[in-house]
């Protein structure tokens, strides 16, 4: 019996559960695609084959042809990739056996240096799975009968997921009822802790399900998930839920506050190089001080405008360090606004080492510790300025 | 409204009872003493207090000057001066707006109380930058008169020294011939000379020269003690002025008759007096404002003229002076925001003004 050879369809390792969950149909079949095989050991089998292939429609035939071509193509690409990796390893003088993808990237960057702005436009050599989009396994058998019961919804995986959420919700309800009936009413279940993560975006869900969703369908899915995770006993399905959440980067990278340094006289101090637009400021905040400020060897009147002086005083006042520390700053470049902004950032960053964690958090919320990335927007051709257009004439 | 009289005891720490500058000492540092309306009118009606300072004192109901270290230093020196030795020259210097003019006003009050004849030029750049009409001098070739300014100055002199001049009864030692018909004979009272100058603008500048000459001689012969106070002295050596000849060339301040007169008075070839002078960067055009120090501001010519002198720096407020100033503003209800009166508010004011007197005054102003 001719059997379709199915394509390898594996999104990523973390969705292993999803895979076994989604594809109830067997994934690997013995044997390979033998469409035009006329010679057979068993004549009996041949007759059977011929009768089967006759029943297949033209659409089915072309589908299977396409599947075979794609499969071969991927195999070819993989083969080329592996050979290419070995070649690269030889070129770079490294061991081909232990040549990882990072080594490949480095080698390509070295051999094909590119000045292109977008990283995606530069030369790359990656595993075919990362370049060529995944396809679904065969959704129907030889006779055209679909494997999945929800095939005719045209988005079987999506609707399966939605149905399963509903089913699980009911299961959790039954669990809750059981608990209540046993009379363990006071026991509160542990809450599902979703802080620090967010629902994976639409693109990622599409990659997992291998189906494209409309915005409304995505929103619907997320709403369902939200409702699901708000169930008191949702912690039971924590693993399932966490498959569809991703960690927020900010939680992982916490900036380390540097330790105070000591100078010759034993006074603690901290330095920081801060930038704003194109001006650079080197700021040194010295503890055990009286509020002396020196900017480019002059006093606060280096800045004539009140708004610039206010920028300088803001971090000191906010953290209650006015009159307790001395500030020595050198600044150059750009104009007064940028210079005062750079010094402000420098002072704030230095003050982190002098104050407690609560004040640092307050400073962060006040925006004192964020680098201001705004720069001058370029002028575009055909316009008078960055945004300003020339006079529009109707005719 | 609070008035302070010599007999009233003062409970504030930022004010002092001692209204006579002669008695001001170190422990009066940072404290305000008030000047009565009559004294203010007598001494400063022709100038001497900075305009904004004067207006503020009128708003705050009374002129109160803070006793600061430079003035105390000067007063100690003046009290200890050996008036038989040649005159000492004192030069007050510091950043613009640090309190030099007010210190000079304080010294002026001291001189008045000490019975010294006051020769006071309120602000020299007024003669150099905004002359009301310079005419070529008749007597001195290639020099220029200031008829209107001289009349004003003689009026200012007579207001300041009126009662004292009446008491001293100084007489001229020379004959001054003004024209075929006008003449001031030897032995005539100096007040006559002054009156002539005030009435005849044409001869006013020469009257000033004559007056200064007479005062110098009078001091030498111990008939009176002279205190010379000049604000913005470096303007006499300014490289620019607003006076132009017919051919549009600039007349330098060294070509003014008044300059010669005051430079001769500030030479140390006489005794029985004192010379207190200030140099300020704002008295020079913007090209010469890089440094507030005396050597730079006076230039070669000015430095050679004044050398040797005693430089006295007028710095920014010290902590004590700053708090005293804030106390004064708070008491006068000039600082009305309740937050400004707190510790944090004071720290903010100190930081934002850099403890600079003029900056603080402008910062605290409602306009």
From TrEMBL, chain A:
Keyword field contains Ribonucleoprotein: yes
Keyword flag Transmembrane: no
Stretch list, region Disordered: 376-395
Keyword set, alphabetical order: Ribonucleoprotein, Ribosomal protein
Family stated for the protein in its record: Belongs to the universal ribosomal protein uS9 family.
PANTHER family membership: RIBOSOMAL PROTEIN S9, SMALL RIBOSOMAL SUBUNIT PROTEIN US9M
Stated name of the protein: 28S ribosomal protein S9, mitochondrial
TrEMBL record, chain B:
InterPro entries: Ribosomal_mS29, Ribosomal_mS29_met
One MF annotation (Gene Ontology) recorded for this entry: structural constituent of ribosome
Entry keyword set: Mitochondrion, Ribonucleoprotein, Ribosomal protein, Transit peptide
Subcellular location, record wording: Mitochondrion
Pfam families in UniProt: DAP3 (PF10236)
Family as reported in the entry's similarity comment: Belongs to the mitochondrion-specific ribosomal protein mS29 family.
Protein's UniProt name: Small ribosomal subunit protein mS29
Organism of this sequence: Daphnia magna
Lineage start: Eukaryota, Metazoa, Ecdysozoa, Arthropoda, Crustacea
